[in-house]
Design goal:
The protein has helices at 5-11, 25-33, 47-57, 104-115, 140-153, 165-175, 190-200, 211-223, 238-253, 275-287, 300-313, 346-359, 375-380, 386-396, 417-423, 439-444, and strands at 64-66, 73-75, 93-99, 119-121, 124-126, 130-134, 157-161, 181-185, 204-207, 229-232, 265-266, 292-295, 326-330, 339-343, 363-368, 406-409, 428-431. It is α/β, with parallel strands linked by helices.
Length: 446
């Protein structure tokens, strides 16, 4: 049973050192008890106390690592029902379904197409992570062969789907090095699948026809020593599936029910008759609360909006989305091209860079770290001051790329022009438009 804040406080060093980020050990203990802090934040807690506090500090939903390589990921580890309470930590993973009797040529073609679905946004590479390989005929050789092909010839990790222990064993032998998710242990095969998961050290999905059925199965499997579980309550009707996702999350977070304190897997591919509707349903589960979402296929028009939704949902709402400080090239600039500067608030960057791109004028865009604030807010808060911006311009290296030392600042930050000129002797500071929409006309008129 989880410890109370006072019980945790008794085990802490009581130094009130503030190194954990809060003023007192009592406040830290209360945060720890409510899942708002992590035990590692205290630098002075003893090993003995750590052991006693392990249950209290563990996330109510266990984090489960799946896969190897660049598309490896972790699901679970969540501590809140709504992201505005704190944040969601481990983004939803997307899988595409293939059957084991698919031809090698068709599978290779699909993997090549799916691998191309990688999109760069705010410095991140957004991409799906999984292929769900489904056994349909009980042919363990075909299953193993396709699992090996996916594991060895693509970046994708796997979900191995079968209800037969011998087929699953063959799949593990073929691709176990990629740490696949085994799907799924049921009331009929829990002993055999539990033994396979324990022997191989792989995460195991658990499927029942209700949440109550899941509780019985997870209790049995955890007593076997298995900890890395993923839950499927078996619901395939949209309303019921959503209700189950919410009920599982609430039971784990609000009631402290460890039997359902695991990430979940959902199957929009079994809830809709076409991929468009699958995408809509998948979007719902990104927000509420699917950890792994299995689709019948990946298409650009389907996976791209889901990846963007995932990025937005799993971005910390208390920290603005930012881009990396530095020099950005727009429309292939040359040494004669104009230089503009703005803040690193992601929305500001995308609007400004989009308008520059639309102007078709080759330009250099300098992005200064303003702690994720927009131009006006950053200027008002002293995060976009003339001397700081001038120092950034000197140090970023743009002077080595251009012949004409002129820089265009946002109209809303016109007040910093004088300080910038003092910081940048020999440079001309030009005040640009106040609104990004006027940038194309401004650049074309120069």
């Amino acid at each position: 049973m989880a410890l109370t804040g006072i019980q945790i406080f008794k085990l802490l060093p009581k130094t009130n050192c503030k190194e954990c980020g809060v003023p007192t050990c009592l406040a830290f203990a209360m945060n720890l008890a409510s899942g708002k802090a992590e035990l590692d934040s205290c630098p002075y807690v003893s090993a003995e106390a750590k052991a006693q506090l392990a249950e209290a500090s563990a996330p109510p939903i266990r984090p489960v690592a799946i896969g190897k390589g660049v598309r490896a990921f972790t699901v679970g580890g969540e501590t809140v029902l709504s992201r505005h309470e704190k944040t969601f930590y481990n983004p939803t993973a997307f899988a595409a379904l293939v059957v084991a009797d698919i031809s090698e040529a068709d599978l290779t073609k699909k993997l090549k197409v799916w691998n191309a679905f990688q999109f760069e946004r705010v410095g991140l590479n957004l991409r799906p992570q999984l292929v769900a390989l489904k056994d349909t005929k009980g042919d363990k050789d075909a299953f193993a062969k396709k699992a090996k092909l996916i594991a060895e010839t693509s970046e994708f990790n796997l979900v191995l789907m079968t209800d037969k222990a011998d087929v699953m064993k063959a799949g593990i032998e073929a691709c176990g090095f990629k740490k696949p998710l085994l799907y799924a242990a049921t009331a009929a095969n829990a002993d055999a699948f539990g033994a396979l998961a324990k022997e191989s050290g792989l995460p195991l999905a658990v499927k029942a026809d209700s949440i109550e059925g899941l509780v019985a199965l997870t209790d049995k499997l955890t007593k076997m020593g298995l900890k890395d579980l993923v839950l499927d309550p078996g619901s395939r009707e949209v309303k019921k599936a959503l209700e189950d996702q919410v009920a599982i999350r609430r039971a784990a977070l609000k009631n402290g029910n460890r039997a359902v304190g695991f990430p979940t897997i959902v199957f929009p591919c079994e809830m809709a008759s076409n991929l468009d509707m699958e995408t809509v349903i998948a979007g719902m589960f990104v927000a509420k609360y699917g950890s792994i979402v299995v689709l019948s296929d990946f298409t650009g028009e389907g996976i791209f909006p889901l990846l963007l939704e995932r990025l937005n949902i799993f971005t910390d709402p208390q920290r603005p989305m930012t881009v990396v400080q530095g020099i950005y090239e727009v429309n292939n600039p040359t040494a004669e091209s104009p230089v503009l500067v703005t803040t690193n608030f992601a929305l500001t960057y995308f609007i400004v860079s989009g308008e520059i791109e639309g102007s078709r004028v080759p330009s250099w865009l300098l992005v200064k770290d303003s702690e994720g604030l927009s131009v006006m807010t950053a200027w008002a808060a002293g995060k976009f001051a003339g001397d700081d911006v001038g120092m950034f311009v000197k140090k970023c290296g743009i002077a080595d790329k251009i012949k004409k030392t002129e820089i265009i600042i946002p109209g809303y930050a016109a007040a910093i022009a004088g300080d910038m000129e003092e910081e940048l002797p020999g440079w001309k500071v030009t005040v640009g438009p106040r609104e990004a929409a006027h940038i194309p006309a401004f650049l074309k008129a120069r």
